[in-house]
Design brief:
By secondary structure, the chain is an alpha+beta fold. It contains 18 helices and seven strands. Strands 2-3-1-6-7 form a five-stranded mixed β-sheet, with helices on both faces. A two-stranded antiparallel ribbon has the order 4-5. The C terminus is likely disordered. InterPro entries: Diguanylate_Cyclase (IPR050469), GGDEF_dom (IPR000160), Nucleotide_cyclase (IPR029787), Rev_trsase/Diguanyl_cyclase (IPR043128).
Length: 506
């Protein structure tokens, strides 16, 4: 299941609740009961958020989007609502439908409860990029096996639970829900118009090669619709809202979409098993789906730990180069400008001397939080060690880069550093004492521009680095753009994208 237009954030109460439950042994009955209780409590809390949103339509995030995006989103939601109502005309539910719904709903609830912690962590990790929800394993199968009334009820149950941990604006979350509903309704239409309907009614697999081929093509068509409808509706909304039409920005990476395809493959397995004998679904698919989700999260955690700086959560210097160089290359191909920011904390040694290394770590964490809050999902942000940070701003003009850099500089200067302790005197044997919020942290920022300064990754870094040192020499706490002639730097990095070519030339 593809998810929406904006950043996914984990709230503080959600983080504490999640940590408390995840401390339980995974297989313990009490841990499962606590997780169910937490999920129920979170869904119950949504009443206030939903009512507050409905009472204040003028404050909806929707109205902050461009008019074309608003028109597209509202038009899609209205069209899907009419489609859903039309699908109810003449609809009837059989005992088989109710039994299938009960089993699939039970599997879905079990899956939602068991994966609540890893799913919330996945959403937190993916907050700056595409997030693929694996609940398509159940919703895709339900779209084929169940009438629209029941499959849409299952979708509503899933989306309410996911909304409790997604913490997105309700208006955009409703749009992505409408996109998922369009997928389900389209799959149901394909099922009714092809041999899948008769196959499901009989509960037997086709025997003749021709029938097998027709059923396979129909099932493939249903999967393609499920994938393409969500991708198309959401990517158009993103393009209209964000004003850009680059593939990765609209639909995510190939790896993201491979995850979606894999979930649909599991949904096909759910469909086949459910058609033969609905009792096979919980026996087979729950274990596979849970294992897949947990393995994906474990792999994501391992990759994140290897690429992220432990103190700030930003990319390390080594992990920064490849995505930054790739963004630069993409902008060059599309003839778009790029900006590179180098940042250095002013007088950082004084923070370390006065508040200790733990205090210095707190300062680094506060600055990294400012960088996250003041950069976009497409920007690449990293820490170069010590007190230096870097930001690659794709598709960014000189004026935009200056505005972003100045916004970061001002935000750092206004930041209140909390949690610091200092020694009562200069002797390390004295007990530390807590101090109140401290202001005074500032940052010097250098700006390098492509193609103005260079289209080479290493030279662009050198331009930003030289500008940063010029900002420090000019009095610190300021933004300086690199001059046209950039002096040589002993620490110019080599673009990761050019290393293979350099090796061949050697």
């Amino acid at each position: 299941m593809r998810n929406g237009l904006e950043v996914t954030l984990v709230s503080e109460f959600g983080k504490h609740d999640r940590d408390a439950v995840s401390a339980r042994p995974r297989g313990s009955l009490r841990g499962f009961a606590d997780t169910v209780g937490l999920a129920s409590a979170r869904v119950w809390r949504l009443r206030g958020r939903a009512w507050n949103t409905l009472r204040h339509p003028a404050g909806w995030e929707l109205w902050r989007l461009p008019p074309a995006a608003v028109f597209w989103m509202l038009g899609t939601e209205i069209a899907v609502a009419f489609w859903a109502l039309k699908s109810q005309v003449g609809a009837s539910l059989t005992t088989t439908d109710l039994v299938r719904f009960g089993v699939i709903a039970g599997c879905t609830i079990w899956y939602l409860v068991q994966t609540q912690h890893p799913e919330e962590q996945r959403r937190a990790d993916d907050r700056r990029g595409e997030h693929i929800d694996q609940t398509a394993v159940w919703l895709g199968g339900a779209a084929v096996l169940l009438p629209p009334t029941l499959s849409l009820a299952l979708l509503l149950m899933v989306r309410v639970q996911r909304y409790s941990i997604a913490h997105k604006a309700m208006t955009t979350f409703l749009f992505t829900t409408a996109a998922h509903a369009a997928s389900i309704l389209g799959v149901h239409t394909i099922t009714r118009l092809t041999s899948l309907h008769g196959w499901l009614e009989s509960g037997t697999l086709p025997q003749r090669p021709g029938d097998i081929a027709v059923a396979a093509v129909a099932l493939l068509g249903a999967a393609l619709w499920y994938f393409a409808s969500q991708t198309l509706l959401i990517s158009i909304a993103r393009g209209l809202a964000w004003g850009g039409w680059r593939r990765q920005k609209l639909i995510g990476s190939w790896a993201d979409n491979a995850d979606f395809v894999y979930a649909l493959q599991l949904a096909a397995c759910t469909t086949i098993l459910g058609a033969v004998n609905i009792a096979l679904v919980p026996l087979v698919m729950i274990g596979i789906a849970l294992r897949s989700t947990r393995l994906s999260q474990a792999l994501a955690d391992t990759i994140a730990r290897s690429q992220r700086d432990r103190k700030t959560g930003l990319l390390t210097e080594d992990s920064f180069h490849a995505p930054a160089a790739l963004r630069l290359l993409e902008d060059q191909t599309g003839r778009r400008p790029t900006a590179f920011l180098m940042l250095d904390l002013d007088h950082f040694k004084q923070w370390n001397d006065k508040y200790g290394h733990s205090g210095g770590d707190i300062v680094l964490g506060c600055v990294s939080a400012v960088l996250r809050q003041n950069t976009r999902s497409t920007d690449v942000v990293g820490r170069w060690g010590g007190e230096e940070f870097s930001v690659l701003l794709p598709d960014t003009t000189r004026e935009e880069a200056m505005r972003i850099a100045e916004r970061i500089r001002a935000a750092v200067a206004k930041t209140a550093i909390t949690g610091l302790t200092e020694l009562a005197s200069g002797h390390a044997t004295n007990e530390p004492r807590a101090v109140g919020p401290i202001h005074g942290c500032t940052v010097s920022i250098g700006v390098g521009l492509s193609p103005e300064h260079s289209t080479d990754y290493g030279e662009l870094f050198r331009a930003a680095d030289a500008a940063m040192y010029q900002a420090k020499r000019s009095g610190r706490n300021r933004v300086v753009v690199a001059p046209s002639a950039v002096p040589p730097s002993p620490r110019t990095p080599t673009s990761p994208l050019s290393r293979a070519g350099d090796a061949r030339r050697d």
